[in-house]
Amino acid sequence: MKAGQWNGSTKSIELNNVPVPEPAEGQFLIKMHSASLCHSDLMPEGRPDAPTTMGHEGVGFVEAIHPSAAGKGFVVGDAVGFLPFLDACFACDACHVHNLRCEQGTTKLQGTFHAVTGCELVPGAWLAVVGCGGLGQYATQFAKAMSYKVVGVDIQDDVLAAVTALGADAVINTRTTTAANVDEAIHTLTAKGVHATAVFSAATAAYETAITLLRPGGLLMVVGITDTPLPVTAMDLCTGRYRLKAENTGTARRLPPVLAFAAQHRIQPAVDVRTLEDLPSMVEAMRQGQATRRQVVLF
């Protein structure tokens, strides 16, 4: 079968023929139907164990079941979605915190629902969604369904148009708006600043902007993973300038309320359907910040 892989030796994305794996003990074999490109798919570039297959956000159908995994409520042909965790046991103390921390796993790393609910807002409160690509568009839908007011913040007009169409109450392009005018716009909208900012961008500059949008005591929700340290200081935290929380990929135990809420409120993903052969151009679009919607490979 074909796989889109990052090759560390050539520093390039390749379409390679790889063997179809056999399910090991406790495993299912899933025939992929589709998979979306995530910013964390770019992270294997620095890993020594390349080539690494990309596309950890997938759905598909059960193709085969190892005898040891039979009788667990699944049969061949079932449609399934799954978390991108490799060898997480889902039972140890660390897994109860986050499957990423599994004591025996080798997991890798995004999440929007719990990032929004974790902002501890009440209906009518202001949430700044910083980074309005695929995840930011999900977050906007969730936030509006929870009766929050949303200001979308990005450097691209097309993604700001997307969150406007999804119900954002206001948008700000920080590339074309001066810092002084951003501050004026936020205070005109909210009087004192937003109650929380949720950052879905991996750019350090996005966090720098997010902090300036907050009212005193507001909450900074960390989701996007940057390559450099965050511009957060102990003094700001200790003196209550803002509070700090973080969210990322949800655990299996937290998925049911997400799915139920999405179904109830008809949360719809905005996607561009592509082919596996498009993977190099998809990655380049993400690197350049030109991906305005979730990019999905249909197999």
UniProtKB/TrEMBL annotation:
Pfam families named in the record: ADH_zinc_N
Keywords: Metal-binding, Oxidoreductase, Zinc
Cofactor requirements of the protein: Zn(2+)
Gene Ontology molecular-function annotations: metal ion binding; oxidoreductase activity
InterPro entries per UniProt: ADH-like_C (IPR013149), ER (IPR020843), GroES-like_sf (IPR011032), NAD(P)-bd_dom_sf (IPR036291)
Ranges where the Enoyl reductase (ER) domain occurs: 8-297
The keyword Oxidoreductase is annotated on this UniProt entry: yes
Protein name (record): Alcohol dehydrogenase
